[in-house]
Amino acid sequence: MDPNHYRFRAVWPVAAPPSRVYAALERLDAYPAWWPQVRGFARTGEDSGLLRIRAALPYRLSIALHARRRDPAAGILEVGMSGDLVGWACWSVRAADGGSVALFAQDVEVERRLLRMLAVPARPLFVANHRLMMRGGLHGLRTLLERGLDEE
After folding, report:
1. Tens of pLDDT along 29-62?
2. Do 98 and 112 touch, CB atoms closer than 8 A?
3. Alpha-carbon distance 36 to 97, whole Å?
4. Nearest to 137 by CA among 28, 41, 12, 16
5. Is the pLDDT assigned to residue 10 strictly greater than 90?
6. Which residues pair with 69 in a beta bridge?
7. pLDDT band, residue 1 (cuts 50/70/90)
8. What is 46-72 written as a DSSP string?
9. CA-based angle 107:112:117, to the nearest 5?
10. Minimal CA–CA distance to 5: which of 128, 87, 90?
11. Are 151 and 30 spatial neighbours (Cβ–Cβ below 8 Å)?
């Protein structure tokens, strides 16, 4: 197993219809307003942008994103990633229990030199850091949707 390869999965139950959840997840430029660990997003093209992330650990990641699939009918959002992380991430939004479930999947390779050097001893910290980031994102998305801030 390559210590610089990560596969993440998360399940976000949300009390909002799939169309609203999908619309909120599609607006990457709004992520910094509701997802605390997303520190910035700048568009670099019609279907691309640069995402800056910092969670609990003292490092920032810069990730170039480019749309691979955007399918509102199927509830699928998929991006390719390059920069500090190389790979892909995908949201799949579906109806569930009077609301929605947003399923997140990510398959990436770490490219940043310092993080690669720390891959073996710090892997548990990197995984925990990702979990904290996802927890912050779920809380932020729920708050956004509950308060109707996505409809402004």
Report:
1. 999 999 999 999 999 999 999 999 999 999 999 9
2. no
3. 27
4. 12
5. yes
6. 78
7. confident
8. TTEEEEEE--SSS--EEEEEEEEEEET
9. 100
10. 87
11. no
Under a CB-based contact definition with an 8 Å cutoff, are residues 77 and 91 in contact?
yes
- The pLDDT score that the predictor gives to residue 149 is 75
Pairing of strands 5-14, 85-96: unpaired
Cα separation, 97 vs 66, whole angstroms:
32
Pairing of strands 61-71, 48-53: antiparallel
Please tell me whether residue 37 adopts helix, strand or coil conformation: coil
CA-closest candidate to residue 110, choices 131, 83, 89: 83
Distance, in Å, from the CA atom of 18 to the CA atom of 36, rounded to the nearest integer, reads: 22
pLDDT, tens digit, 9 for 90 and up, residues 83-132: 999 999 999 999 999 999 999 999 999 999 999 999 999 999 999 999 99
